[in-house]
Specification:
The structure holds 2 protein chains of 2 kinds. Chain A is built from 21 helices and 4 strands. Chain A is globular. Chain A starts with 5 loop residues before the first helix and ends with a helix. Chain A is mostly helical. In chain A, the strands form 2 sheets. In chain A, strands 1-4 form a two-stranded antiparallel sheet. Chain A has a two-stranded antiparallel ribbon with strand order 2-3. By secondary structure, chain B is mainly α. Chain B has a domain of 210 residues. Chain B contains 19 helices and no strands. The longest helix of chain B has 32 residues. The N and C termini of chain B lie far apart (44 Å). The chains are: A mainly alpha, B mainly alpha. Chains A and B meet through helix 5, helix 6 and helix 7 of A and helix 16 and helix 17 of B.
């Protein structure tokens, strides 16, 4: 089926420019209204695509450019799930920062970011993928640097340089891969479906590792993770939502879309390494989170742990692992997105986010306490919530592929309540300390409740009835599993 | 009787040069005087535009055998770079008297002769005709300080040394080949030819500003006005790169050709590292232009290593074209905004959001962030280096690209994220038009490599 997919990335791009153009003192609210309108329309359009077309396997007529580069976009279950997540979280982020009196640039940046992220998940050409992949850095750089908290300048530059540095490895790998294909076939092509190196020779392993480093920085996999706590902590709440919710998934998507299909042999060869790294990530992130005193930093480290579970499922190369790991990407986007938004709500009211700055918030802000607790439970992976499904399936997959890694990661599962629940208790239940600013934190208003109901509703729905959501990843799971 | 057919032939082969001669003559005839500077400025811009139009590819009579000057695809493609690259300086700078106009037109004439030469002596004449006005431009147009005279003198002596090396190379070539004519691949790879090419290539690398022959460059660029530095770093550098390519092509397997990738790697690394600590914007951009030259030299090295591959020639050309827009843009930004140091940049985005946006485009493009022109330029060079099997220089290039991004991002950070007392800058409409004209290709050339299709054909792709 063909469908107009170009619209998915051009609409937010043009919308971003329009938002910038309409900025002015005469209508200060116009930019944010326009941005939200565009984001909402795009979300509805994205949601309507499979309903109208009857399937989410869609391609668009491509266009050959120079040097074997082909402008080709397509959707399948995996892409579609992430495109939908991007559209949804962009809308939520904009709505979540509705009351922050930012300039037009803020609202436009989110649309530019959405455009680049859509492109990443739509592109079926490695060159195109790389352009979108890198282009996503620019709006996020400005979002962190301009609208972040105290240490934002440092965090923005660190974020850009780290991920750009990682991307150079990705670029090197891509160029080597394209050259290698040219040597074998005599054709220049960046088309993902035509790039396939079957043998597991040293060159394949080298290219795989080089590209994997690029993806690992984004995920982030230890030891390439050090940009994450800074970037996530300093970004404005909506920026953290997009960073954790969508941008981290780009790395895992790269594994699923490029690395495993292109190097079917090498993935299995390196399974112990990736499985081990994933398990280490899960444990390391948990320990890292445990010692944090800043609520946002704690959630940032919990992302490292969660992404470890995602990678574990995917790297296990079993159908249940791949489906579970992929579903966990979506889960993490929803859960961590909700947590970052709520920290943002608290910060907006009190300009604090330290664990010891608050106490007994459940008394002053019961609705906030309810949603925060719910999101914590989902993040911990309590059965009945979405996190459980993803984590369980990921672990089950790895248990079949590499039991040692799975058992080590079980430690990470056990540690999750140990860092999230005490933090929750401290902020929401414990008596406030002498210099607590809990009294400043008023309860959620209607807009905030609506956002959190949407996110929490999805967490529960996925947790209680995961099967239709897993359908998105069924094709990828069966193609990529060993 | 007027020999119409001869004039026609002259214009067909050397249209821009004929136009420059006429433009120069008109400006001189109009006389020296203060009131006439606007006239000469406009005439200079028109002459450059005429040069671009006249050089555009079209049917030409085949050059006579043994011609000293004859157009080919490279000469046409490169002349477009020279004349377009000179435009920002012609429009923004070159004020006061007609002297600067005469000088840059003379310099551009020399670049054209470099492009057209089929003979080493003509190549040398082109080199001198290009360089001597450049020395005078630094002296006459710089801020009237001792630094300008000192830089001009340094430039003059270094340039003189380069010329001497080039002449020595010509002499050796003549001793071995008994002719001054050259063409791709004519010379055998023997030690004397190798030494001759090495001498001539060194002279070209001097002009490009390759490490360790770069020491004159930051002083000269900093002592010049920003738009003049833009002219030097784009048009003049493109001519020097073509000079290098012409010399290398005589024997693509020479020691010179083999050394180029490493020269490029060294140049880009040292340039990038030295740019890191700079606080003067113009000096920072000078070092950054050394780093960019390194990428270009690596591209030329890959081009030579693959036996003058058209794809690699296109990569070098694309880099020069992208660099022309983004670097002229960056220097023109300094000219329009009047900013001098990184401290001046702080808070600039709040004061002048539109100019700051253009500045950010130039910085991200120079830093090689997709989807800008600078990204595609770097990518093509890296790709060609990979095809040529130059793995170690490529690794250095990737590292240098990351280092270079550090200082470009630092400038964006200064302009956008730091608080400061930068005053709002309006800039003349001409200045803003030049900035937009540079920013649009800097941002979009990376997305539409296809628009340069005709150039690909010129270079033999």
């Amino acid at each position: 089926m063909t469908a107009p997919l170009t619209l998915l990335w051009t609409a937010p791009l043009l919308g971003g420019f329009l938002t910038l153009l309409l900025a002015g003192d005469r209508a200060p609210r116009l930019p944010r209204r326009l941005a939200l309108l565009i984001a909402t329309a795009l979300f509805l359009y994205t949601a309507a695509i499979p309903l109208a077309a009857g399937s989410f396997n869609l391609t668009e007529l491509g266009l050959d450019l120079a040097w074997g580069i082909r402008y080709s976009l397509a959707l399948d279950g995996l892409s579609y799930a992430l495109v939908l997540l991007t559209a949804f979280l962009t809308m939520i982020s904009l709505l979540g920062s509705w009351k922050e009196g930012h300039s037009a640039g803020f609202w436009a940046s989110f649309l530019f970011l959405e455009s680049a992220l859509m492109g990443v998940f739509l592109a079926r050409d490695l060159f195109l993928f790389y352009i979108f992949w890198e282009a996503s850095l620019i709006p996020m750089f400005f979002i962190i640097g301009l609208w972040g908290s105290a240490n934002r300048r440092h965090a923005a530059v660190k974020f850009f340089l780290y991920t750009f540095g990682g991307s150079l490895f990705l670029l090197l790998g891509a160029l080597l891969l394209v050259n290698e294909r040219h040597a074998a076939t005599g054709l220049w092509s960046w088309d993902m479906s035509r790039l396939r190196l079957d043998g597991g020779g040293p060159l394949s392993v080298f290219i795989f590792i080089s590209m994997a480093i690029g993806f690992a920085v984004k995920i982030p996999v230890f030891p390439f993770h050090t940009w994450l706590p800074d970037a996530h902590t300093e970004a404005p709440a909506a920026g953290s939502v997009m960073l954790a919710g969508v941008m981290l998934k780009m790395g895992l998507y790269g594994f699923l879309r490029i690395l495993y299909p292109v190097f079917p042999g090498v993935g299995a060869q390196l399974l112990p390494w990736l499985g081990g790294l994933a398990a280490f990530n899960a444990i390391y992130g948990a320990f890292g989170a445990m010692v944090q005193t800043d609520l946002k930093r704690l959630i940032a480290y919990s992302s490292v742990a969660h992404l470890g579970f995602c990678l574990m499922g995917i790297a296990s190369l079993t159908p249940e692992g791949i489906a579970g790991g992929s579903l966990q990407m979506i889960n993490h986007g929803l859960t961590t997105g909700a947590l970052f938004l709520m920290v943002g709500f608290i910060y907006e009211r009190s300009h604090k986010r330290g664990l010891s700055d608050f106490g007994a918030l459940a008394r002053t802000a019961p609705a906030l306490g309810f949603f925060f607790g719910l999101a914590c439970l989902a993040s911990v992976g309590v059965p009945g919530m979405n996190g459980f499904v993803g984590e369980f399936m990921s672990l089950a997959g790895m248990m079949r592929a590499l039991p040692i890694a799975a058992m080590a990661a079980l430690l990470g599962v056990g540690l999750a309540p140990a860092y999230l629940l005490p933090a929750f208790g401290k902020v929401f239940w414990n008596d406030p300390g002498p210099d607590s600013c809990a009294s400043k934190v008023t309860d959620l208003d209607g807009r905030e409740r609506a956002i959190l109901w949407a996110l929490s509703g999805l967490m529960l729905v996925i947790g209680l009835y995961p099967s239709p959501w897993l359908d998105f990843f069924r094709a990828a799971a069966s193609q990529l599993s060993l | 009787m007027i020999p119409i057919d001869k004039i026609q032939r002259l214009f067909a082969a050397m249209g821009p040069q004929a136009a420059f001669a006429i433009g120069l003559a008109l400006i001189v005839l109009a006389g020296f005087g203060r009131g006439r500077s606007r006239f000469s400025k406009a005439l200079g811009v028109l002459t450059l535009l005429a040069g671009v139009v006249l050089v555009l590819p079209r049917a030409r009579p085949a050059p006579a055998a043994g011609a000293l000057l004859a157009p080919d695809g490279f000469s046409i493609a490169w002349q477009i770079l020279f004349y377009v690259g000179a435009l920002p300086f012609a429009i923004l700078g070159a004020a006061g008297t007609e002297a600067p106009v005469l000088l840059y037109l003379g310099s551009a004439l020399g670049m054209g002769i470099i492009a057209l030469s089929r003979d080493l002596l003509m190549l040398f004449i082109g080199l001198e005709l290009m360089s001597i006005p450049a020395y005078l431009l630094v002296m006459g147009l710089g801020r009237r300080e001792r630094a300008a005279s000192e830089a001009a003198l340094k430039y003059f002596f270094c340039g003189g040394a380069a010329s001497a090396l080039f002449l020595l190379g010509i002499a050796l070539y003549y001793a071995r080949m008994k002719t001054l004519a050259f063409a791709p691949g004519v010379a055998p790879a023997d030690p004397i030819v190798g030494a001759s090419l090495a001498l001539m290539g060194t002279a070209a690398l001097f002009k490009i500003g390759a490490v360790p022959l770069h020491f004159w460059l930051p002083d000269v660029y900093e002592a010049s006005s920003p738009e003049l530095a833009g002219f030097f770093s784009t048009a003049l550098k493109a001519a020097a790169v073509l000079l290098l390519m012409r010399v290398v092509s005589i024997a693509p397997a020479s020691a010179l050709a083999k050394a180029l990738p490493w020269a490029g790697a060294l140049t880009m690394f040292v340039g990038a590292v030295l740019a890191l600590g700079q606080t003067s914007l113009q000096r920072l951009l000078s070092y950054s232009s050394i780093a960019h030259a390194g990428n270009i030299i690596l591209g030329v090295g890959a081009w030579a290593a693959m036996g003058a591959s058209p794809a690699a020639a296109y990569a070098v050309y694309f880099y020069l074209a992208a660099y022309l827009f983004m670097n002229n843009g960056a220097f023109s930004f300094l000219a329009v905004s009047g900013l001098k140091t990184r401290e001046d940049l702080k808070g600039f985005a709040k004061a002048s959001p539109v100019l700051a946006g253009l500045f950010a485009v130039f910085m991200l493009a120079l830093g090689g962030a997709p989807p800008t022109a600078g990204f595609l330029a770097k990518l093509l060079i890296f790709w060609e280096a990979l095809k040529a099997g130059l793995y170690a220089p490529l690794a250095v290039a990737l590292l240098s690209a990351l280092i270079a991004l550090v200082y470009y991002l630092a400038l964006v950070r200064d302009a956008y994220f730091e608080e400061g007392s930068a005053a709002p800058v309006q800039g003349s409409w001409v200045g803003r038009a030049v900035l937009w004209a540079c920013a649009a290709p800097s941002a979009a050339l990376g997305l539409f490599p296809i628009v340069l299709g005709p150039i690909q054909r010129l270079l033999g792709l």
